[in-house]
Structure formats: C-alpha cells, structure tokens
Design brief:
InterPro entries: DiS_bond_form_DsbB/BdbC, Disulphide_bond_form_BdbC, DsbB-like_sf. This protein is mostly helical. The chain contains 4 helices and no strands.
Length: about 130
C-alpha cells in the first residue's frame, strides 16, 4: 500500500488547521501577532497552498520544499518559545507594540502549537521522502 497520498493529505490538513487557527487568533480573538509570530506565519501559510496543490495533483515530489519551510518555521517557533520562557536572555528578538515574550495562552502557548504543527509536517515529509526513494 502506498502511503504517500495519505502522508501528503495529513500534512495538508495540519498546515490548513494551523493557518486557520492563526487567523482565528488574530482576527476573531484579536491577539496581536508579534514579530516572531509573523515569521512563523511566513513559513506556514504557503504550506496550506503548496501541500493542497500537491495533494490535488498527487505530486509526491513536494517534500523537499515543504520540509525546508517546516524546518525553518520550527526553528523560529523554538526561538519564540525560548523568548517566552527566558525573556531576559533575548533583548533584540522582538520589539513593541507586541513583545515576543507575551503569552496569550499560557497553558498551551501559541508558538508551541506552531512548533507541533511544523514537527508533524516535518515528520510527514520525512516519511514521504523515504517512500519516494523506494
């Protein structure tokens, strides 16, 4: 059984939910995104389109592009989490009006949500790459 389309579909759903979730936080809940939030969005939003088109076309060769976006976005999410946990260590990362140390949801921080999404997509693309090499 070929898992490629299933992995691609899963990654697309993750990217779509992450994209819609971030829009919900900013447009409905009115959470102002900080600078690092914008950078994370830059690496997540295109994936909803990229992976959706790849799924529609059954293009399993999309994995290197999505993997690159996810690795960079996940790195930014990690930096953002560190900024929130240890704001005294990061003086240049973010500036007003919304400092990156602001936690809108302390129980489940938004950068952690983004990191989980990036990791799920990274894992899916890694499996897709392995399947493509067979």
């Amino acid at each position: 059984m070929q898992r490629g389309p299933l992995l691609l579909g899963f990654a697309w759903v993750v990217a779509l939910v992450a994209t819609l979730g971030s829009l919900y936080y900013s447009e409905v809940r009115l959470f102002l995104p900080c600078e690092l939030c914008w950078y994370q969005r830059i690496f997540m939003y295109p994936q909803a389109v990229l992976l959706g088109l790849a799924l529609w076309r059954q293009d399993l060769g999309v994995w290197p592009y999505s993997l690159a976006l996810s690795l960079i976005g996940g790195s930014i999410s990690t930096l953002h989490l560190l900024e929130q946990r240890f704001p005294e260590l990061f003086t240049l990362a973010c500036k007003p009006p919304v400092p990156c140390s602001v936690e809108y949801i302390p129980q489940f921080p938004i950068p952690l949500q983004a990191l989980i999404a990036f990791l799920l997509i990274t894992f899916s693309m890694g499996l897709l790459a392995r399947e493509a090499r067979r």
